[in-house]
Amino acid sequence: LYKNKIITLLSITAIMLVGVWIYSVVTKNDLTAPVTTQHTAVKDVAVISNNNLLNAKPVVQVSEQPTYITEMEWQVLQQIAQQKPPAEDALVHLVNNLRFVKQVELWHSLVKTNPEAQALAELLLTDIPTRVQQQDLDRQQAQQLQQELISILTVDANARQQRITTEAKRIGVTIEFESQ
For the chain, give me the number of helices (H) and strands (E)? Predict the structure, then answer.
C-alpha cells in the first residue's frame, strides 16, 4: 500500500517535471536570461518553499492552495481528489500527505544540529501517528522514522529509549529495552 502511494507521488512529480519542461520549451520562458540568474531564481523559490514548510501544520480544510505546494502540484492534487469522493476530504488528505513527505525530505536535507531541523523533527513526530492512521505510513516505516528523529533530538541514551518507547506507543507498537 505504501509502495503504491510512493509510486503515485513519484509519478505525479515526474509528470510535473515534464510539464514544467514542456512549458519552458513551448513558451521559451526566460531562455535568453543568463544561467546564473535562472539558478538564483530557482534557489530563491526553494528557500521560500522551505521556509513555508518549516512551520506548516496539518490542515483540516483546504479552501486555497497552500504556500508550500506548487501550482502544478495543486492542480494534480485537485484532479486526483475529484476522483475520490468526498473530494474535499480526499484533497485534505492529499495535501497533508504531500506536506508530510516534503517535510521529511526537507528534514533529511538540513544539518541535524540546526534548530530548524530540530523543530521540524518535533513537528514530524507529532504528525506520524496521523500518517499511520491514514495508512500513508506503515508501522515499521513510522517506527524507523521516529527512531531516526529521536536519535537527533535526544542525546541522553536513557531519555532516548524512553522517548522511543513513548512515541512507539502512539502508533500502536510496544518496545521493551533490555536493562544494562
Answer: 7, 0
Cell numbers placing 152: 537527533
Residues 6+ apart with CB under 8 A from 54: 106, 116, 119, 120
Q: What dihedral do alpha carbons 41, 97, 107, 119 form, nearest 10°?
A: 110
The pTM of the full predicted model, rounded to 2 decimals, is 0.71
* Alpha-carbon gap, residue 84 to 123, rounded angstroms: 28
For residue 95, how many other CB atoms are within 10 A of its CB? 24
Question: For every one of its 180 residues, what pLDDT tens digit does the chain have, with 9 covering 90 and above?
Answer: 666 776 676 667 666 655 554 444 443 433 333 333 333 344 444 454 577 888 899 999 999 999 999 999 999 999 999 998 899 999 999 999 999 999 999 999 998 888 999 999 999 999 999 999 999 999 999 999 999 999 999 999 999 999 999 999 999 998 876 665
